[in-house]
Design a protein that fits this description.
alpha/beta; Rossmann fold; 2 domains; seven-stranded mixed β-sheet; 42% helix; binds adenosine-5'-diphosphate
Length: 325
Amino acid sequence: MSTLKKIGVFTSGGDAPGMNAAIRGVVRTALFQNIQVVGIHNGYQGLLSESFEPCHLGSVANIIQRGGTFLKTGRCSEFLKPEARLTAAENLKRQGVEGLVCIGGDGSFAGASALYKEQKIPVVGVPGTIDNDIFGTDYTIGFDTAVNTAVEAVDRIRDTAASHDRLFIVEVMGRNSGFLALEVGLAVGAEEVFIPEIQVSVDHAIEHIKKGLQRGKGSSILIAAEGQKPGRAYDLAESIRKKSGFESKVCILGHIQRGGAPSAKDRNTASQMGAAAVNALIQGQSDLFIGLKNDRLITCSLSGSVDKKKQPYPDQIKLIQMLSM
Ligand code: ADP
């Protein structure tokens, strides 16, 4: 029997499909163990303003199939300061909250790790981001749904590209990471994928398009991760035009990739991770997050993942290039 009496759960950073399923997994697992749960609104902002709501079985009814997060999420620059983390710890103690489950991306994990290190608040992370870029885990909640949303959109674009013999550059999300772009690129049979981590030259892409033309291929799809500024695909289009004279159409998928009903994979992974996070807190574990390795749940060091960069395999780019020759 657990000695824990009350825990808190919150979502932070960018929303991802499956976050609701993770919250449900946390709330129902805790209640099953007679542990009270409070939902904290708007990520770290809610910790500072004590925006807490008690969660019952019914609080998480009818949400497993919904995208976004019913607890809301957000970014909170104040939490970068140690004084804010002290305030958060004081608020949690006053409310009798003895442990936290943080559902979010690498930034949210950095905040959770700092809260644990400085204030010794037990905290367990659940990775939720469409970027799939958290070091230590093969998978983050929301990735599968976002990939499928983007693939469906690119398939539609390909119909137009093929009908008009056009070159399209489709920009997907991924400010610092290209996992989404790579997965989408492979699934749609893209000619080339541009990601922040691995350099692919515009010249290489042009050669690739020319080879396609020589064998009678009239249309091509290039996938670009947005990089530091959304709209990067326009720069690529301009650079291709200047070097080769090829005109291209740009389509920026934007936020449609973040929303929508989570896939079965995301709902199930989220449910399992949410339950595992509560069990870790019950066992007195902290400063860790629940990850996935070779399709099995694992625990990873939270502070160990902060400031480490998960790297994509260069082989995936080579495969995409080879298969679309
Ligand atoms: P994500 O979790 O999706 O990567 P962000 O990078 O925007 O999203 O981080 C979400 C929030 O986590 C930030 O707004 C901030 O409140 C908190 N955070 C991020 N980095 C740190 C840090 N180094 N120290 C403390 N809090 C942080």
